[in-house]
Design goal:
The complex is a heterodimer of chains A (about 325) and B (about 250). Chain A has about 325 residues and is an alpha/beta fold. Chain A folds into two domains: about 1-225, Rossmann fold, CATH 3.40.50.300; about 230-295, Alpha-Beta Plaits. Helices cover about 40% and strands about 30% of the residues of chain A. In chain A, the strands form three sheets. In chain A, strands 6-7-8-3-9-10 form a six-stranded mixed beta sheet, sandwiched between helices. In chain A, strands 2-1-4-5 form a four-stranded antiparallel beta sheet, covered by helices on one side. A four-stranded antiparallel beta sheet of chain A has the order 12-13-11-14. In chain A, helix 3 crosses helix 4 and helix 3 packs parallel to helix 5. Chain A starts with a strand and ends with a helix. With about 250 residues, chain B is mainly α. Chain B has one domain (about 1-170, about 205-245). Chain B has helices spanning about 1-15, 20-40, 50-65, 70-75, 80-85, 90-120, 125-155, 160-175, 190-195, 200-210, 215-245. The longest helix of chain B has 29 residues, at about 90-120. Chain B is globular and about 55 Å long. The chains are: A alpha/beta (about 325), B mainly alpha (about 250).
Chain lengths: ~325, ~250
């Protein structure tokens, strides 16, 4: 069964801004689905529609087979969302926050207490039970935020950029929690993120969107095939001016986009077999100093840049 | 049940932040203490504190319930507003819990003002039953003002414009009423706006309970009816503004 089905969805705000433009996608039950896109792509608008906060302008959206426009009440009981903004109440204790959430979803006291104990244990929050919420670190607060959202045992959990602003250790802890939610509770997870590494590591399916519509939706492995053999990696000598080189290579006709990491430049090109030799020759002619050059299997970063930049150029 | 869950959360916050209770109480308290002394050589019969008390109680309701909507701005800054909005809780319960929270704040202040008035020799002439009927009138006034305040907070973009608008209306509504001067002594030209002001009728009814002795049931029922209509209209408006906010 499809957990989420979106068909030709559009959203135009009263200001006239078109946030979503004919978006179509599907999310399978019990999978981790990641939504990627640059700022302003329409990710937050989409989450707001899926969580019944916003009404769509046009198109059909169903959650667990229920229509978001006509069956909001039923959908509210099936979903939970951890928004970007922290939603826990600092004036309540950890347990009070969780019990407040349980009463929003009309759970009886016995069930609420049972679930609360299970979630506190599963999310490693036991040691923080006695502390004041205001004293929690950002990572622990976010963990509690997710635990609260799990109190209703939602069929679908929306996570809007759950690791934004976290250090790497907290991010890794969060990834474990996301996997745990999927494995232990069978919850479908709909995730938005800016971290491609995160989407690559966690997701069963990745969707990249731009300008309010979907560019591509597939598994991370299949997505990498999109630019397979079409990325060239160049390791520059440290003496080479990277900015000048970046400008020069970007201006080449066959280069669709570049990504720079210190002395390494990844260039997305149209035809690796043909363009590799041309690029190599051009660099030698220009006497650019580099230690290695080769065709590489692209990362999800390359796929993202390839898709969003080629789209940007064509506009 | 869901209303009381939301109310429990708000009240818990309120008692951890008593400074809000004190801040909104300051102005009515100063009026009660200073003006009742300054204007004690009055044109009214008897105790001027007893005369001014209904107006001060109304001012208390206007300042505390009128400002109650400001809480929405801080709620929206965090994620808890969104979390509650997308939960299965009815929108009417969200508005009702807001009204009840405003009532808790207002009635704490009303109790303090009544206690101080008692110490200033004010006695409620209509007895215990009069106190309950006064509470009913004040609760309906709180409900009306808090629901309007809630609707305004969804219509205006930030706290500054909200405070400016509420302040623009609060004091004129207080002055263009019978809060400080008996209706009969108000200059003729001002009587029409004073009569149109619904709070004039609330003050007059409260005043009958405080000092009138015999209850004017006609006036009381008219005021209750008027407030009920205003409450229903403002409640519907508040729910509409809450739903519209997400569009």
């Amino acid at each position: 069964m499809e957990a989420i089905s979106i068909n030709n969805l559009s959203k135009v705000y009263k200001s006239g801004k078109k946030a979503l433009d004919g978006l179509s996608l599907t999310v399978k039950e019990s999978e981790i689905f990641s939504l990627l896109g640059p700022n302003g792509a329409g990710k937050s608008t989409l989450i707001n529609i899926l969580t019944t906060y916003l009404q769509p302008t046009a198109g059909k959206v169903s959650i667990m087979g229920k229509d978001v426009c006509t069956e909001q009440k039923s959908i509210c009981c099936l979903i939970a969302c951890v928004a970007q903004k922290e939603s826990i109440d600092n004036h309540l204790s950890l347990k009070e926050n969780m019990l407040f959430q349980s009463r929003l979803y009309k759970l009886d006291t016995a069930t609420a207490n049972k679930r609360m104990d299970a979630l506190i244990a599963a999310f490693g929050l036991k040691e923080y039970e006695k502390h004041r919420i205001a004293a929690y670190s950002g990572g622990i607060k976010r963990r509690l935020d997710i635990a609260m959202s799990m109190m209703s045992f939602p069929k679908i959990l929306f996570l809007d950029e759950p690791t934004v602003g976290m250090d790497i250790e907290s991010r890794k802890a969060m990834w474990d929690i996301v996997k745990k939610i999927k494995d232990d509770f069978g919850t479908t997870i709909f995730l938005t993120t800016h971290y491609l590494e995160e989407a690559d590591m966690l997701s069963d399916t990745v969707c990249i969107m731009q300008d309010g519509h979907q560019l591509v939706q597939d598994t991370p492995e299949n997505l990498r095939q999109h630019t397979h053999q079409n990325t060239i990696r160049i390791d520059l000598d440290s003496s080479e001016n990277q900015r000048d080189f970046g400008n020069w290579i970007s201006d080449l006709q066959f280069v669709r986009g570049i990504r720079q990491e210190q002395n390494t430049v990844y260039a997305n090109i149209q035809n690796a077999a043909q363009d590799f030799h041309i690029l190599n020759q051009l660099m030698m002619d220009k006497q650019i100093r580099y230690s290695s050059i080769g065709i590489v299997t692209p990362s999800l970063d390359d796929v993202f840049l390839s898709l969003t930049q080629s789209k940007g150029r064509s506009v | 049940m869901e209303t009381f869950n939301l109310l429990w959360r708000s009240v818990k916050w309120r008692f951890q932040n008593p400074v809000i209770i004190i801040m909104t109480l300051t102005q009515p308290l100063l009026w009660l203490l200073l003006f009742s002394t300054i204007f004690s050589g009055n044109q009214t019969n008897g105790n001027y504190t007893a005369f001014i008390l209904p107006g001060i109680l109304l001012m208390c309701v206007l300042s505390s319930s009128g400002m109650s909507g400001i809480a929405n701005y801080s709620l929206k800054t965090g994620g808890s507003y969104y979390r509650i909005y997308i939960s299965p809780v009815k929108k009417s319960s969200i508005v009702l819990s807001h009204i009840l929270d405003a009532a808790v704040l207002s009635f704490i202040q009303i109790a303090i003002l009544m206690g101080i008035s008692f110490m200033m020799s004010v006695r409620i002439a209509s007895g215990v039953s009069g106190v309950f009927l006064m509470a009913l009138l004040l609760f309906l006034t709180v409900a009306f003002v808090a629901a309007i305040s809630y609707a305004i907070s969804h219509a205006l973009p930030d706290e500054n414009s909200f405070i400016a608008l509420v302040n623009t209306f609060t004091l004129p509504l207080f002055f263009v009423s019978s809060a400080l001067i008996p209706y009969e002594q108000i200059p003729r030209g001002f009587r029409i706006p004073v009569l149109i002001n619904p709070f004039t009728h609330v003050i007059n009814s409260l005043r009958r309970f405080v000092s009138g002795g015999l209850v004017d049931w006609g006036q009381f029922l008219f005021t209750v009816g008027l407030l009920l209509i205003l409450c229903i209209c403002s409640f519907v408006l508040a729910i509409h503004s809450l739903k519209r906010d997400s569009q």
